[in-house]
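This follows on from our talk about sequence and fold. I would like you to pick a protein and set down its sequence and fold. Go ahead and set the record down below:
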Amino acid sequence: RRVHGDPLHFCLSLCSLCSFRFMGLAWSSAPTVGTTETALEVLQNPVSAAALLAGDADAAAQAVKALVDERFFVLELDEAAQNTVRALRDNADAFFSSGQEAMERAVAPPKYGDDDLDVLKSRRRNEGFIFVPGVKAYLKLGRAEESDIAFPSDAYRAAHTAAFELFMSLAARVVDAVASTEGGDGSGPLWTRDVAKSVLDHAPCKSAIACIRYFARDIDSAKESYGEVHGAGEFLPSPEHVDTGVLTVIVAADVPGLQVKTASSGEYLRVEELVAGAPYGARAFVIAGRKASIFSRSSDGGLQPTLHRVSLPAATERTSLLFYMDTP
C-alpha cells in the first residue's frame, strides 16, 4: 500500500531534505519516488553487520526476507567496519587525485596473448583502472593475492584487502542464509546447499571491489551523452541496470544518488537520501544480481535481480564504493 500521506513517510522525507541542505547539496523531487510500508520498514530497520558476522539467525532471516520482498536491504556497520570502509575511501580519493599518468599504471594487462584472435585481443577487461572520458573513472580490483594488476600503493593494497575480507564475509553469511530460507512456492530452500557451497568456494577468486568517480557534468554536456535529462535537471551517469553477479554491496555515498526499484511499488526509491544523516561508512545497501536469480530453485518467490541506477543533479561529483560478489 502506498503511504505518500503517511506521517512517518513525511518525517523521513523532511529529515532527508534537511540533511541535504545541511550538507550544501541540491535536492530535487522526482516523479519516480515511490515508497511503501514494506520499503520504509526495510530502510528503518537496518541489518546489523556485526550480528550477521556473528551468525545471528534473526539478522540473516531479516536480510533474506528484505531481499525477497523489496530486492534490497540496508546494512548497519559498526565502528570497526566503518573505519575499514573509510580507509579504502581515503585511498581511493588519493588515487583519483594522483593524475592520469599515475592512474594508468593500474590499467589491467591484456586478457589475451598475441597468438589469440584479434577479436578476442580487442576485448577490454572490466577490471583495473578504466577511464570513460567525460563520464567516470573507476578502479576495480579483485583479491590482492590473485591480482595481476599493480595496486596504486601498499597502503591501498592493505585497505583493499581489509575491505575485501569484510565484504566477502558479510556476503557469505547472506548466501548461507539464502540456502536456509524456504521459497514462497513451497518447493524448498531458495538455493540448494550445493549451489551455496559452489558460490562460496569460487567467489573469492571472481569477486571485486570497485571505486567509481562520477564526474560533474553541466546539463548541456549531460544531454549530449545521455539524451533526455530526467526529473528536475538530473542525469543518469549509471542508467537503469541489474548487476551480473550474485550480490552487490554498495556503501551509502556522501553524495546521494543511488535509486533502487522496489518490488512493492515498481518505482524508484531514493534510498541514499533516506539515510543521508548517517556518517560515511555507517550504512550500505545489499542488492541481488542476475546470478542470484539464476541459482534460485524457482523463479516464483525466489531472489530477483535488483534494478537500480545512479541519478545526479548537474555539476555534481560523486564517488561510489561497491563490492561485487561473483562466480565464474
